[in-house]
């Protein structure tokens, strides 16, 4: 594919599943922080979104950086032989593990940006849509109430 590493469906698939778990967890924690700020701190939507991103930036980035740094040797095809005391490049076993590591490293780098930029935008859009819907319902209720009270 892009990296010159052959795409193996099993190991790349396992990497994508592991990646999905990390990304979903990051987003759940971000959205939960937002909900807590809205409910308990009574913050406005924009302020709660920005504050939630500020509070979750460090944990998301630490998760991303440590995972990427931990998997980078495997993604580069390095194999450490503990018994022989050697570091091998492109060893036969790295052909199995490299696609898994590349899937997680590339996906996590991309998904962390999405978590910190797109998720907050979607939260704001969702709240804006909800507010407009409530305003329409309130307007409809006022119209219905005034029609029923007017003499017919």
From TrEMBL:
Q: Pfam families of this UniProt entry?
A: ACR_tran (PF00873)
Q: Which GO terms describe its molecular function?
A: xenobiotic transmembrane transporter activity
What GO cellular component is one of the record's annotations? plasma membrane
Query: Could you tell me which InterPro entries the record lists for this protein?
Result: Acrflvin-R (IPR001036)
Membrane spanning segments where?
Answer: 6-29, 60-80, 100-126
- List UniProt keywords, sorted A-Z: Membrane, Transmembrane, Transmembrane helix
State the protein's name: Multidrug resistance protein MdtC
Question: Taxonomically, what lineage is the organism?
Answer: Bacteria, Pseudomonadati, Pseudomonadota, Gammaproteobacteria, Cellvibrionales
Name of encoding gene: mdtC_3
């Amino acid at each position: 594919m892009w990296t010159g590493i052959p795409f193996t469906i099993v190991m790349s698939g396992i990497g994508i599943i592991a990646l999905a778990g990390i990304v979903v967890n990051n987003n759940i924690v971000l959205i939960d922080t937002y909900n807590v700020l809205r409910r308990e701190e009574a913050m406005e939507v924009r302020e709660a979104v920005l504050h939630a991103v500020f509070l979750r930036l460090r944990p998301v980035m630490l998760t991303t950086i440590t995972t990427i740094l931990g998997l980078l040797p495997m993604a580069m095809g390095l194999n450490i032989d503990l018994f022989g005391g050697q570091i091998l490049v492109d060893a036969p076993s790295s052909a199995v593990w490299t696609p898994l590591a590349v899937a997680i490293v590339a996906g996590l780098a991309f998904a962390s940006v999405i978590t910190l930029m797109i998720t907050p935008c979607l939260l704001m859009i969702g709240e804006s849509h909800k507010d407009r819907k409530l305003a329409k319902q309130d307007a409809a209720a006022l119209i219905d109430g005034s029609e029923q009270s007017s003499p017919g």
